[in-house]
Amino acid sequence: MSIGTWSPDTGTVSVNTTLDKSWLDRFIAFSRDEELTQLPSLLTPQAQGDLAAYMLVSHSDWQAAVDGYDTDSLWHLMRFLVMAEMHLPGWQAGADSPVIALNKVLKQHAAPLTREQLQWIRTHSDNRFIPNGAL
């Protein structure tokens, strides 16, 4: 569970959640094992609710949390997050999606998304902000 604060001046929510690398590694494994279509049954309702806060963690915190991850792991984490946003209640993030932060990390690694990866995202998501954020 996390506690967030809302700032009326900016209209944004600040979430005080630490990204647990063991969960991130599990998310990556779900993608590598091609289990993404089974997400609602892979995570208990309690875990789904608790981990939904990950979608609102700041982009800078996401970028710090994945420091040292290889490009393949980043892609699998992005796949998980795309599918979670579509299939798990409370995981919708819009322009705050961590997929945007991970995409920036890939670009920093000089490994931008391929045409096929971009097409995969478009096929599996209705979030118009991913992977590049608000334009």
Protein topology:
Layout: E1 4-7, E2 12-15, H1 21-32, H2 39-42, H3 45-51, H4 59-65, H5 71-87, H6 98-108, H7 115-124
Structural description of this entry:
A hairpin with a 4-residue loop joins strand 1 (4-7) and strand 2 (12-15). The protein is mainly alpha-helical. It has seven helices and two strands; from the N terminus they run ββααααααα. The chain has one domain (20-124). It is globular and about 35 Å long. The model is unreliable at 1-14 (pLDDT under 50). It has a two-stranded antiparallel ribbon.
Mean pLDDT comes to 89
Largest sheet: 2 strands, antiparallel
Q: Strand order across the biggest sheet?
A: 1-2
Number of strands: 2
Task: State the main characteristics.
single chain, disordered N terminus, 135 residues, mainly alpha
State the gist of this model:
This protein is mainly alpha-helical. It is built from seven helices and two strands; from the N terminus they run ββααααααα.
